[in-house]
Amino acid sequence: MERIVIKLTRQVKRHLRRTANKIKDAKLKTRYLIVLHTAEGYSRRQIAKMLLCSASTVDRVRKRFREQGEQELMDGRGDNGPAKINEDYILALLKAVEHTPLDYGYRRPTWTQELLIRVLTELTGVTVSRSTMSRVLRRFGIRRGMPKPTVCCPWSEKARKRRIRLIKRLIETLHPDQAALYEDEVDIHLNPKIGPDYMLPGQQKTVLTPGQNVKHYLAGAMDAQSGRVIWVEGDRKRSALFIELLKKLDRHYADKKVIHIILDNYIIHSSKITQKAVEKFNGRIVLHFLPPYCPDYNKIERCVWRELHANVTRNHKCQDMDNLMQEVRRYLARLNRSAAAKRRREAA
Fold it and tell me: Mutual orientation of helices 113-124 and 87-98 as an angle, nearest 10°?
């Protein structure tokens, strides 16, 4: 192979260095550095190793520079005509990703890049390569993720929105002598929940499980204003656990006339035993039920239990339930301290 030699004057080298230092585009900067390293006498292999590019790229850039000068370092794709990826293509892509291949007559329920290319070719008449599709997906933050399973609410859309609106208004107009809390239960499993984690290339982390699973349950309530969490623990998730939480809330909010509790429709919240227990509080505790299958509106599930799993129970290494529950209590106590500190900062 012919050895390509580039000779530059001191003034030209200074100009190329200054230009390269100002460039933010990584590929363009690499082309400038290839020319500068060649002028310093480095071989194609040395330059490829230093700049983490292929030797063929080094050859191509050096040849173009020697034949046409600095202007050839710029991206030459500007003369390729109109871009394939136009606004219509992007809109069709975004709409397709919101749906599934089933909606476009294919039997596969999930997307692949090849299938996206095929469907968009049918819709727009434009065919792109897989590498181009990959760049477009990255550009718009479209990623492969885990879908969230949901169940359709049996209520009408009007009734569901009305109930959510009433609960939001209750919290926004809450009287100082009243309290409002989001309530829910959470299962703590000795067998750890398996979740994603960073791993080295070619390696897969392992999570040691005790084998026979043991369960513990928490019933908790998060103050809608302060964010403080109050909870009770039990070996079984039944009405007695929920009633124990109600008694604890009654003691904790002794200075409040009414305690509003926002909760889901789980059976222990409306059992006959629970109804009798609520009656004994003589109107101090009022239950506000969310529409069925609407967990996103229960803030304790989103803000507390989900983070509890992420910070404690997922991929945990506790070998017995006592150690695991200690970690759970530490996390909830730390969460309450953070909530209290935030309230002090807002009050200051």
Answer: 130
Distance CA 244, CA 314 (A): 27
Q: How far apart are CA 221 and CA 263, in angstroms?
A: 9
Say if residues 221 and 182 touch (Cβ distance below 8 Å).
yes
Contacts of 294 (CB under 8 A, 6+ apart): 153, 160, 164, 264
**CA–CA dist 157, 148 (Å, integer):** 20
Per-residue model confidence as pLDDT tens for the chain (348 residues) = 456 678 888 888 888 888 888 888 888 888 889 888 888 888 888 888 888 888 888 888 888 888 877 777 776 555 555 667 888 899 999 999 999 999 999 999 999 999 999 999 999 999 999 988 998 998 888 988 888 888 888 999 999 999 999 999 999 999 999 999 999 999 999 999 888 888 888 888 888 887 788 999 999 999 999 999 999 999 999 999 999 999 999 999 999 999 999 999 999 999 999 999 999 999 999 999 999 999 889 999 989 999 999 999 999 999 899 999 999 999 999 999 999 999 999 887
Closest CA relative to residue 312, chosen from 284, 292, 335: 335
What pairing do the DSSP bridges indicate for beta strands 178-189 and 258-263? parallel
Pull the structure tokens for residue 312. 């404690």
Q: Which is it for the CA torsion 153, 155, 158, 164, positive or negative?
A: negative
Q: Which residue is associated with the tokens 């109050």?
A: 230
Contact 169, 180 (CB under 8 A): no
As a whole number of angstroms, the distance between CA 72 and CA 65 comes to 6
pTM greater than the 0.85 cutoff: no
Compute the distance between CA of residue 311 and CA of residue 259 in angstroms, rounded to an integer.
Answer: 30
Which of 311, 327, 298 lies closest to 193, judged by CA?
A: 311
Cα Rg of the chain (Å, integer): 31
d(CA 143, CA 151): 24
Q: Using the structure block, give the residue that is written with the tokens 């209750």.
A: 170
CB 268 within 8 A of CB 287: no
- C-beta atoms surrounding 42 within 10 Å: 16
